[in-house]
Amino acid sequence: MSGGLRISRAKDTGVAVLTLDRPARLNAIDVATARELAAAWQAFRFDDAVRAVVVTGAGERAFCTGLDRAAEVPQPDSPFMVDDPLLRIGPKANDLWKPVVAAVRGMACGGAFYLLGEAEFVVADETAAFFDPHTTYGMVSAYESVYLAQRMPFGEVARMALMGTAERISARRAYEVGLVSELTPPGKALAAAVACATVIASYPSDAVQGTVRALWQAQEATRAAALAHAPQLVSLGNLPGERQAELFAARRPGGFRTR
């Protein structure tokens, strides 16, 4: 597949690795890559040779930094409708119930949580750092906060969402609060995630997929109800695009602390 994704399949293990391949843009997702992600998850549904998937990012600096700020995303002129280009970039949004493991190196922020929030679990190396920049730039953290609320204690989610770019959560802290299930040395997260996926893929597929579905069913009602309110909250709370751009242009690199 060309464009912003790279996919490899290991036929002997049944594991596919899906890599966000835009390292020069810190693996930020433009509209074309968002469409590729949706197509990839849908293709995995019908590929019986794929029994587990690992999602990761190319390069050392970032797993994913969310929506590419250069992406043109026209919006309906109505507070009741929001076209979110990242809404269908995750596996569950595309009705894929095969297990997905995320491998994180470097930054994971903003729209990255659409992917991390729909993975079964997250493996990260010691370089990983997590933050949500929305409030800093006059945007509502709605979808991201909902996804994170399924993984972390309320106070930790609230702090991340409200502190914006002023603070980053280290890989160690993310492990301590439950966002990350395994912490590895630098550069080893992908191998660890693939090892987990290989074990899972070796088990009977129907039993694995049924377990995945059961796990998600336990929280689906709450998640679906919360996400239903997200478009209106975003529409009502976001600053105009030009004002967001001004705040983004005025950002000061390095002005954050890590905990």
UniProtKB/TrEMBL annotation:
Pfam families: ECH_1 (PF00378)
Family listed: Belongs to the enoyl-CoA hydratase/isomerase family.
Protein name: Enoyl-CoA hydratase/isomerase family protein
